[in-house]
Design goal:
metal ion binding; alpha/beta; S-adenosylmethionine-dependent nucleotide dehydratase RSAD2; 352 residues; metal-binding; TIM Barrel
């Protein structure tokens, strides 16, 4: 068609204008539609993705209460010990403090120092430095120790007692001959006399006193009610003897604890016999195996679910969040067994 004939026909000219306008509007609304759909899709996906990340963060375990076995060395030879002297390694003080700071930054509220025997290394000064650092520098609500009590001196309380919330002394029997059979003894010293001496120091220096007992074939029929009531600890932890391959059972173990193990029924009978003791806190093997966060001397979390101690990588190398994923820790069981309690001596309202 020639240009002259196009201009000569008003109808064709009008049709051309209408078609052009249609194309422009169609293009505009198409872009607007897809832009709106894309925005709505992104806005719906973003909260979902955010929710997934939040859920993932919630699933990261918090090291609320940690047991740091910084040494394996011990002067006792308890036949059922499940953290034996397989090495003599102890971290340098600065490295130990660095690890404790990482734990605090990840949510730790309570630290418990154990061993081996924690008062052996550097005659208790290393332990005292860690206690002081955790309370004064890290401002932890609770700092505690588990010890056999054999090497504790009053001078230690004078220097570090203010910064210690709880001192737990292991005592499996109030019969000296039974302690001898178990291996909780050294030379001619009386473990029971020492227990009472430390109890009086705790009272004098305002440290909450606790007793830990492992129930086994040598003490399962003993009635400790009168002695426990007399000592009046804030807690009396009663454990069922536990086998750990490579520690107190198996070919590579330094102990042979099979002869100490009792059945669940006998453990329950012991608990029933002591049910009148108000401070009794029972812990069966089921509760104990995966409800504790245990750090070894290299600051590796130990997974005990398979009946042995499988170490994670050290928190000093990979951080707390990565290491704790391999700990086997069951937070629900930790709470179920009463792992979180009034653990700061400032909140216990004790009569000193």
């Amino acid at each position: 068609m020639q240009l002259s004939s196009l201009f000569a026909s008003p109808v064709l000219l009008l049709q051309l204008c209408i078609d052009s306008l249609r194309f422009m509007f169609a293009s505009f609304f198409s872009k607007l539609y897809y832009s709106t759909v894309y925005s709505e899709t992104i806005s719906s996906v973003a909260p979902a993705a955010s929710k997934v990340h939040q859920e993932k963060d919630r699933n990261v375990m918090t090291p609320t209460s940690v047991n740091y076995h910084f040494t394996r060395k011990c002067n006792y030879k308890c036949g059922f010990c499940f953290h034996t002297a397989k090495t003599s390694f102890v971290l340098p003080l600065d490295e130990a403090k660095r690890g404790l700071k990482l734990l605090k930054e990840s949510g730790m509220e309570k630290i418990n120092f154990s061993g081996g025997e924690p008062f052996l290394h550097d005659r208790g000064e290393f332990l005292g430095e860690l206690v002081q650092y955790c309370k004064q520098d890290l401002q932890l609500p609770s700092v505690s120790i588990v010890s056999n009590g054999s090497t504790i001196k009053e001078e230690w309380f004078q220097k570090y007692g203010d910064d210690l919330d709880i001192l737990a002394i292991s005592c499996d029997s109030f019969d000296e001959s039974t302690n001898q059979l178990i291996g909780r003894t050294q030379g001619g010293k009386s473990h029971i006399d020492n227990l009472h001496k430390i109890r009086s120091w705790c009272q004098q220096y305002k440290v909450a006193f606790k007793i830990n007992s492992v129930i086994n074939t040598f003490n399962m029929y003993e009635d400790m009610t009168e002695n426990i009531l007399q000592l009046n600890p804030v807690r009396w932890k009663v454990f069922q003897c536990l086998l750990i391959d490579g520690e107190n059972a198996g070919e590579k173990a330094l102990r042979e604890a099979e002869r100490f193990v009792i059945s669940e029924q006998l453990f329950q009978e012991f608990l029933e016999r002591h049910s009148s003791v108000p401070c009794l806190v029972p812990e069966s093997n089921e509760k104990m195996r995966n409800s504790y966060l245990i750090l070894d001397e290299y600051m590796r979390f130990l997974d005990c679910r398979e009946g042995r101690k499988d170490p994670s990588k050290s928190i000093l190398d990979v951080g707390v969040k990565k290491a704790i994923c391999f700990s086997g820790f069951d937070e629900n069981m930790f709470l179920k067994r009463g792992g979180k309690y009034v653990w700061s001596k400032a909140d216990m309202k004790l009569e000193w």
